[in-house]
Amino acid sequence: MEFLENSVRSYSRKGSVELITGSMFSGKTEELIRRLKRARIAGLKVEIFKPSVDKRYSETSVVSHDERSITSTPVEHAASILLLAEGCDVVGIDEAQFFDNSLVDVCNTLADQGKRVVVAGLDMDFLGRPFGPMPYLLSIAEYVTKVHAICTRCGNLAQYSWRKSAESKQVLLGEKDVYEPLCRSCYNKAMEKDIPDTGK
Ligand code: ZN
Questions:
Q1: Residue 91: which of 131, 70, 119 has the closest Cα?
Q2: What spacing in Å lies between the alpha carbon of 153 and ligand 1's midpoint?
Q3: Res 1: pLDDT
Q4: Distance in Å, CA 184 to ligand 1 centroid
């Protein structure tokens, strides 16, 4: 059954973790922003956090590729979110894959306090490996929404973030000219032709 988010005020008192995950260009951040804006309309106190490693566009905004942005606070460690989210009803976390595994306990603690926690992050890195704390977040979340991009080579649903560049750091951030969303079949074909440099 599909999960449709509920923004009525009583919902927040129960506490829960929602995870939005998928590849580059799958609309994760857009979906995060959509849910948080609706929570604000419902009169809830909303705060958004992201790891300070993500400096692609701006220090203080969660910015999606279509530029519908929402202000956020960059934090160096997941533990800071516990302090900064005090008094919030809804806590948004973007680019969750860049935090370490302590984010899992942080999300559980926030939800146990009665907060609605909405987390967005990349499920896999460019080699198709589970990314950072994401597998654990998938396990503990009440609700998981997997979103897909469109394969730029065949038009099917894409789940892989193919790296066109030879850059090999896992934290290299997703710019349109570096990554290309591909389906399983096109990803495998691309891997056969051009194995990415893993830096090993
Ligand atoms: Zn394809």
A1: 119
A2: 5
A3: 46
A4: 7
Q: Which two tokens stand for residue 73?
A: 């606070």
Contact assessment for residue 75 and residue 54, using Cβ atoms and an 8 Å cutoff: no
Whole-prediction pTM value? 0.84
Q: What is the set of domains in the chain, with CATH numbers? A: 2-147 (3.40.50.300)
Phi, then psi, of 144 in degrees rounded to 5: -125, 130
- The answer to whether residues 75 and 94 touch, using CB atoms and an 8 Å cutoff, is no
Active-site amino acid positions = 95
Tell me the CA–centroid distance for residue 39 and ligand 1, in Å. 36
Find tokens 């460690």 and name the residue: 77
Q: Which of 185, 192, 139 is nearest to 159 (CA)?
A: 185
Residues of the chain below pLDDT 70: 1-13, 54-69, 165-177, 195-200
**Phi, psi values for residue 95, rounded to 5°:** 55, 45
